[in-house]
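Fill in residues.
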């Protein structure tokens, strides 16, 4: 499997992800108004789970964020862990390459447009 992204593209996406992560963490700190949750942020940054069982505890840890922010924090963290991997930028459902333009808008995208659309079905529109 070869990288479909150049090193420069990858670095750019990683940078975007890091900025977004900082943003979300800062927002969470604001919500918490001085309660020290640095340790929790660290846990979120270092966890390497992919699976549902961890979500219950995430929900407790991140209750200072809205649901959407919690989801985004998870997605961004997950993407940062994978940004250097061969399968970063590949659709998790059909393994198609996700176009750089799509990743640039949403570096945490895990699926190609059609798979994402299929998953979201008749739900609310994607961000
Ligand atoms: Zn797909």
């Amino acid at each position: 499997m070869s990288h479909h992204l150049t090193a420069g593209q990858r670095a750019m996406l990683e940078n975007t992800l890091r900025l977004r992560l900082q943003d979300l963490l800062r927002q969470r700190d604001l919500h918490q108004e001085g309660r020290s949750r640095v340790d929790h942020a660290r846990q979120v940054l270092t966890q390497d789970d992919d699976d549902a069982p961890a979500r219950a505890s995430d929900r407790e840890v991140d209750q200072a964020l809205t649901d959407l922010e919690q989801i985004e924090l998870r997605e961004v963290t997950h993407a940062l862990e994978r940004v250097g991997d061969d399968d970063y930028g590949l659709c998790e459902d059909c393994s198609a390459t996700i176009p750089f333009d799509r990743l640039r808008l949403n570096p945490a995208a895990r699926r190609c447009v059609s798979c994402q659309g299929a998953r979201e079905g008749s739900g609310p529109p994607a961000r």
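Residues 7-120 form a domain with the Four Helix Bundle (Hemerythrin (Met), subunit A) fold (CATH 1.20.120.910).
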